[in-house]
Amino acid sequence: MTGSSDEVYETTVTRLAFGSCHNRRLGEAHQRKLTNRQYALDNATLSNNDDDGRHTVNIWESIARTKPNAWLWTGDAIYLPKKFKGDGPIQALKDEYDQTLAIPQYSKFVEGLSHGIFGTWDDHDYGGNDRGKEMADREARRDLFLDFLNVDKKSERRKRAGVYNSITFGEMDRKVKVIFLDTRWHRDLHMFPSLAASKVPLGSVISCFTRLLSATLSSVINTAGFKRPQMLGEEQWKWLESQVNESDAQINIIVSSVQVLTTNPVVESW
Fold first, then answer.
1. φ/ψ (deg, to 5) at 112
2. What does 100-142 look like in DSSP terms, one character per residue?
3. d(CA 10, CA 115)
4. What tens digit of pLDDT does each residue of 20-73 get?
5. What pLDDT was estimated at residue 87?
6. What is the pLDDT of residue 52?
7. Residue 17 in contact with residue 72, Cβ under 8 Å?
8. Would you say 137 and 144 are in contact if contact means Cβ atoms under 8 Å apart?
């Protein structure tokens, strides 16, 4: 296994933009709210001298104004409608990806990027809140996500156990490498099974408390010598080691879709 990148761009990047937790429906609702005149002077709006005296700027238009070379999805590019509980259906995921790609401002934003979009997923674009290796139909979910990123149908990434990948921009002393981890495909079950994707009322809230309890007990379990749960899986760990050890980039960026260092144990983290 080598440390070569999945994609290589010789041209230098000067600005990378990134984001996560993109709920299309919330964005659309907020956009409608901002178009009302009483919100015309809100901090999230800009005004033109157009016919009605204002133009509400979409989030993608705002990001585009910073002129990034590429966009990095760092997890949860989509959220399924709330009516779906448990593991989200494959068709529902496809529909949500398609509707996100159809957002005019997003489509225009992507077209204006010199290098394109890249990224990894988290639980919601994986298809189930807090899900890990127990998720059904992982290959189909992977391929939908790669379709969303416009990854070539013949890419070796479509044979990979997960969506982890790397990209290199620039040459010599201006080389930047971005390494995306997959923290879902190989992740072991939580110490206390998460209820976040279940039909149990307030399942997400209950899961916060069980994670807090897990964090409290983990130090005892680790001290006692019990086997530590897996996050990346053996194959991905070896891949990550080679990506870092063999990198000749001046800057290496490692993207994890869940928090690595946190003082808040109620959220999913390493």
1. -85, -5
2. HHT-HHHHHHHHT-SSEEEE---HHHHTSTT--TT-S-HHHHH
3. 10
4. 999 988 877 766 776 665 455 545 444 444 444 455 568 999 999 999 999 999
5. 86
6. 47
7. yes
8. no
Question: Quick one: 125 exposed, middle or buried, by C-beta within 10 A (0-12, 13-18, 19+)?
Answer: buried
Residue identified by tokens 């139909």 is 137
User: Any idea what DSSP says for residue 213?
Assistant: H
Long-range contact pairs involving 45-54 (C-beta distance under 8 Å, separation at least 24): none
Is residue 265 within 8 A of residue 211, CB to CB? The reply is yes
Residues of the chain above pLDDT 90, percent: 59
Which tokens is 230 given?
């897996």
Helices marked H in the chain: 24-34, 59-64, 90-101, 104-111, 123-126, 138-148, 203-223, 234-245
Can you name the residues that pair with 117 across neighbouring β-strands?
Answer: 71
Nearest Cα residue to 180 out of 269, 240, 120, 125: 120
Amino acid letter, 97: Y
Higher-confidence position of 201 and 128: 128
Whole-model pTM over 0.85: no
Structure token digits, residue 86: 């448990």
Ordered strands of the 176-180 beta sheet: 7-9, 165-169, 176-180, 251-255
